[in-house]
Amino acid sequence: MAKQKRQAEGRVLKANNAKTRIVAVEQRIPHALYGRIIRRTAKFVAHDERGESQVGDLVCIEECRPMSKTKRWRLVDILDRP
After folding, report:
1. Which of 17, 46, 54, 56 is most buried (CB neighbours < 10 A)?
2. How far apart, in whole angstroms, are the C-alpha atoms of residue 64 and residue 47?
């Protein structure tokens, strides 16, 4: 049985290179003591094989094998365009 791969949704921040995208994934969690909602942002380097995503797109990314020093995610789908 194959292990379930992690997936995340985020916005494309940079699309400078041909097949590489920088995706910002926002996490909204309550503060442990005060309960106020805190936004935490993580940046992931994702592989876009066809190069069809652009800056500002909402995309779904999935964890995969290491493709380079920092690239460990691949683009699965474009969910929304601005």
Report:
1. 46
2. 10
User: Tokens for 74?
Assistant: 């691949």
pTM of the model: 0.88
CB 55 within 8 A of CB 12: yes
Phi, psi values for residue 69, rounded to 5°: -60, -40
pLDDT single digits (tens) 4-56: 899 999 999 999 999 999 999 999 999 999 999 999 999 999 999 999 999 99
Name the CATH superfamily, with its identifier, for domain 7-80. Nucleic acid-binding proteins (2.40.50.140)
Burial 20-41 (b: 16+ CB within 10 A, else e): bbbbebeeeeeeeeeeeeeeee
Domain boundaries, the chain: 7-80
Cβ–Cβ < 8 Å for 76, 66: no
